[in-house]
Write a structure and sequence with these properties.
It holds the Pfam family ABC_tran. Keywords: ATP-binding, Nucleotide-binding, Transport. The protein is an alpha/beta fold and 223 residues long. It is built from 9 helices and 10 strands. The longest helix has 16 residues. The protein binds adenosine-5'-triphosphate (ATP).
Amino acid sequence: MSLQTKDLSYYYQDGDSRRYILKDVNVSFEKGKFYTILGQSGSGKTTLLSILGALDKAKEGQVLLDEQDIQAIGFENYRRNNIGMIFQSYNLVPYLTAVENVLVAMNVTDNEIPSDHEKVAYNLLDFIGITQEKANRLVNQLSGGEQQRVAIARALATNVDIILADEPTGNLDEEREQEIVDIFKRLADEYNKCVIVVTHSQEIASQSEEVYLLKKGALVKHE
Ligand SMILES: Nc1ncnc2c1ncn2[C@@H]1O[C@H](COP(=O)(O)OP(=O)(O)OP(=O)(O)O)[C@@H](O)[C@H]1O
């Protein structure tokens, strides 16, 4: 699996001129690696992640999954079968339990999931540190760190290769942050996922395998 951008650009029209947020971004991501993208507030990190996740469309250039343009795959297909997204604010369904949140995700993918969805969901939650008792609670009866774990389990439920996370620890204290980072490391190392995390945190970046810096529209690898 490779996820690649080719001369990717994004801009906002400002009167007659274009204000570029991303300019000719060329980058390649693989399975089994934990990447971070650093950048100051407003540098375009969320924009880039949204384009990689097909929540937004590049103005110029392409996103390629295994050399195929994601527009040809179809944004919806691509999102459903290839991408798991994690957000700072968790974005769980508040009137469902943790396990129900995971089950909902399983119903939308075309990827193969063993037939006993419920068992898979409880196992995934358990793997991520959510006991069965907690899995049966409404998500708003869980702590922030626990809710983020549920969001990770949900992202994994569809058996996708690519996990995209936008400031996933922004609402968590340092200890919870480290626990979530440890999960990302395991997903890359043991489960061969491609994990791409957008963050302000140098500390998280220092624990990832490849660090990119977004500055003035350019994405530069941090050596
Ligand atoms: N609708 C819009 N019109 C014009 N500019 C916009 C619009 N939406 C976002 N922007 C600008 O695009 C730039 C990139 O935003 P983006 O959210 O990608 O940055 P970010 O690096 O994720 O920031 P943060 O770390 O603060 O979340 C910002 O300068 C923002 O002001």
